[in-house]
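User: Fold both of these, please.

Assistant: Here is the first one.
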Amino acid sequence: MIDFTKLRRPTAAERREEAQRRRADAIADDHTRRLLRSRDALRITLTDHPDARFTIAGDRAVHFYGDQPNGREARAVWYAPEHMSRDEFDTIVAGYAIGATLDLRGYWKPFNGNSGTSFTFVAQFVKAADRDQPAERKSPDAEIAAFDA
């Protein structure tokens, strides 16, 4: 015989605590995975606006295009963690402007194409190098005018 008195439903407070615990665990797991993948460092100065892209699987990515301090062009991509909300993602994308210098931690990934092998830096961590907070984004016309000056 089944004792139904031992079966109970969690309360709203218990469900909320469980959801917060799962989110904290997901953030900690993601941070640990990103630390393990951060083998190299790259500093770039953005020469174009970052592109926000979405994969078929629902992943969100930001593609950065810029120049390294030695003058070589570099491409980088940063994949947003699953626990990040769409508003947080949009705020991050809007925060970077042409001319901003970024410090990236991650690894180089080769891509084989028709014209040979090219490398893209897969960033695990992105930080504005010239200030604590990302640069304020202006209109594209204002940025182009400031860039040409």
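And the second sequence with its predicted structure:
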Amino acid sequence: MPDIYCSHCGEPWDIAELHEVSTVSPEYTSSVLGTHTLSFSQAARLFPAMGCGLWTDRMYGGPIEPCRAKCVNADAATRAKRLHEAFNHPDEWI
């Protein structure tokens, strides 16, 4: 069952996915076996602005860009945006 939603398109995501955001940017230093992985806190700070862009089309760690997907659930996107504005921690977005 999804816990959090993209504030751009309304796509549902499991909160645990915030532990699995890889990047090629050297500014993020949590390195595991040669790949750079954002910390949960770093990913949580980026999720409100980037939404699905944290994962979409980034299998090999390309640049993080904001979600540009077609809206799949406008109500969920609106609710997510309000929750992201009101609360800082992902546990409060559920």
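The CA atoms of residues 56 and 75 lie 21 Å apart.
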